[in-house]
Amino acid sequence: MTDFTMNVGDDGVAIITWDVADKSMNVLSVDAFGVLEGFIDEVLADDAIKGAVITSGKDTFAGGMDLNVLGSIRENAGDAPAQALFDFTMRGHTFLRKIERAGMDPKTDKGGKPIVTALPGTALGIGLELPLATHRIFCADNPKAKIGLPEIMVGIFPGMGGTTRFVRKMGAMAASPFLLQGKMVDPKKAKAAGIIDEIVADPVAAARDWVLNAKDADLVKPWDAKGYKMPGGEPYHPAGFMTFVGASAMVNGNTWGVYPAAKALLSAVYEGAMVPFDTALKIEARWFVNVLMNPSSSAMIQSLFINKEALEKGANRPDVPDQRCKKVGVLGAGMMGAGIALVSARAGMDVVLIDQSQDAADRGKAYSETYMDKGIKRKKATPEQKDALLAKINATTDLTALADVDLIIEAVFEDPGVKAEMTKKVEAIIPEDAIFASNTSTLPISELAKASVRPDQFIGIHFFSPVEKMMLVEIIKGKETGPRAVAKALDYVRQIKKTPIVVNDERFFYANRCIIPYINEGVMMAGEGVGRPLLDHAAQLLGFPVGPIQLVDETSLDLGAKIAKATMAAMGDAYPRSVADDVTFWMVDEGRFGRKAKAGFFDYDENGKRLGYWKGFDDKFPPLDEQPDLIEVQHRLIFAQVLEAVRALEAGVLEDIREGDVGAILGWGFMPWSGGPFSWLDIVGAPWAAARCDALADKFGDRFACPPLLREMADKGQTFYGRFGPEAKAA
Fold first, then answer.
1. How far is CA 236 from CA 240, 284, 312, in A?
2. 318-342: pLDDT as tens digits
3. At a CB cut-off of 8 Å and minimum separation 6, what does 102 contact?
4. Closest alpha carbon to 11 in 208, 219, 216
5. DSSP string for residues in 251-263
6. Residue environment code for 213-242, b if the CB has 16+ CB neighbours within 10 A, otherwise e
7. Coil, strand or helix: which one is 479?
8. What's the per-residue H, E or C state across 605-666?
9. Positive or negative CA dihedral for 52, 58, 59, 65?
10. How far is it, in rounded angstroms, from Cα 354 to Cα 338?
């Protein structure tokens, strides 16, 4: 079965149906592209065919292009990958332009055949760029459908005409949220924005009728008509000039200049707006290829699309029967437990939310009520949906309500004794085949599992806060955790539509193992006299969402102090005490716990809004007269995390470097443009990284010592994906 099929009705209208057999959503491959092009050529050449409707055999239209195609073209192009990518991109532009012009006379704009799109649902990426080239877009009244161009989210931008057509259709200002932020909207909002033309009950029937009644003038796009003027003005128009000045400031303000795709997109829009349409398409193609040739683009596509999708589909799932969860018990109705209850109920599961008092349990359930109220206010939810979700949550103190759950997620106080007591109480009630998971963020799972009578069914499921917003879930295997428990955790995470990584048990697991050194290095430098604004801005210039000083205020210093003291107790004399501990303990003694106390490294107003860095800190830890070089500060922040990632791989905590990269980006915002710590090391090269480790270790200490694995790879000239990637494993 081909991805596209065509049937011509008795009325002369060709229905071209897109239906990729082995995919839940259509994606465009090179072969399918050729089949579609052949059908369009047939439509335009056959006098018996009056026009065409392009639709889908699924309840969605398309999710975009198979991004593996771009990598394959680059890898198989020999010494001219840029030319190969440009030729491929221009082939796409030429084909879509063929649809757009539809055989009409170039001088009179007459004689063309109408080609329209009927969208049953979601249309993203090339799945929207193709419809944009057709003469009219009909969409089903499907509120779940998403319409947009999200390419910027994976390090590229719409390169098959979407950028140029959006700007020509809407103007630069109106197009910017869709192009620069990857905004996706439902059909009604897409119609209001001018992206699609009609919302109807039966888009194929409506499209067929339109084809049969279309006139020559209906086929001419605005930018092909005489006297066309860009909405909002071209760059040299007074109004347009201000738009582009503002767009440039917005892009640099939001990205801090570290995302090449955003700058390239803006250049393509600016340059393309000053030339004829066909020239603008060539400019778009050149900037698109420029981004594709940037290693950042490859790394982002690899981690945020290919690797993320593989993990969500169960790349490392044990081969056991389906373990989807029907009823989950959540122990502890604090912020974490309340969030877990919310996402579980939202996924359709029944939830038993347990706490010591009924008031506490009710407050946990009220978290979901507040969440739904906000959704209703923003018209993202309905009162009926709110009632249905709340009906799924049983907030109670009664442990016997857990008698028929198939998964327990424990989110009580981070104390081994408290957790052990709850484990014993609950295991005496729940079914024998139920899986018990702890949401601990630092405590070793193997130790917690000692309280269990069935340690093979005991696992860690570490959520990140706030649960409903953070996309990563870290699954931790204890020494005795069995494959069914792993499968259960993975299937549950898939149900709540989050991205899982599976790691082996060791203190701090993977995410906290890497993020704690990042925070500590920042706090340490602050204690050494490095300016706190320099520290935060150095991190933001690397692409981190917030710097280490702001981050520690958000996560709370007293939590950091508790972790440090617990680690000291566990490691004894081996604990590497530093200036970071002195700073943290002093801040806690001063009652400056962070945002939650409205006093930390920052001052806050009574509403919790940051007012500026607390000046009292400089009295205790005076700033250096001569501040360090920006690059040196950045390297200390990067290597503090990256070396821990390498050590986690060495120690077997990480079994798959894809999980290391995806987990770093989704878990704590590690430089998304880099693709993650292992992708970053592959970009800079192991030899350079090892040499930089040596320089940092000589100046700042053994925490920057080059791990043996990295040294070995540097000596051999290896890359992490070349040695540990899925293809290397398969070989």
1. 6, 19, 47
2. 999 999 999 999 999 999 999 999 9
3. 44, 112, 113, 114, 115, 135, 219
4. 208
5. HHHHHTT--HHHH
6. ebeeeebbbebbeeeeebbbbbbeeeebee
7. coil
8. CCCCCEEEECCHHHHHCCCCCCCCCHHHHHHHHHHHHHHHHHHHHHCCCECCHHHHHHHHHH
9. negative
10. 10
Residue 589: count other Cβ atoms within 10 Å of its Cβ: 9
CA 283 to chain centre: 28
Q: How far is the C-alpha of 510 from the C-alpha of 262, rounded, in Å?
A: 31
Closest CA to 271 of 305, 234, 233: 234
pLDDT of residue 239: 62
Contact, 515 vs 667, CB < 8 A? yes
Rounded Cα gap, residues 478 and 289, in angstroms: 46
648-707 pLDDT per residue, tens: 999 999 999 999 999 999 999 999 999 999 999 999 999 999 999 999 999 999 999 999
3-state secondary structure of 5: strand
- The H or E element spanning position 7 is strand 4-8
DSSP string for residues in 496-540:
TT-EEEEEE--TTTTHHHHHHHHHHHHHHHHHHT--HHHHHHHHH
CA dist 322 and 495 (Å) reads 12
Check: CB of residue 510 under 8 Å from CB of residue 503: yes
- The pLDDT tens digits for 192-221 are 999 999 999 999 999 999 999 999 999 999
* Residue 684, both tokens: 């800079």
Record the tokens describing residue 440, joined without a space: 């601990």
- How far from 24 is each of 58, 303, 710, CA to CA, in Å? 8, 21, 40
Beta bridge partners of 476: 460, 503
Total Cβ atoms within 10 A of residue 431: 11
- Gyration radius of the chain's alpha carbons: 28
Active centre residues (catalytic): 441, 462, 474, 512
> Which residue's entry shows tokens 């009295």?
619
The encoded tokens of residue 460 equal 């860690």
d(CA 355, CA 431): 20
Closest C-alpha among 25, 92, 12 to residue 57: 25
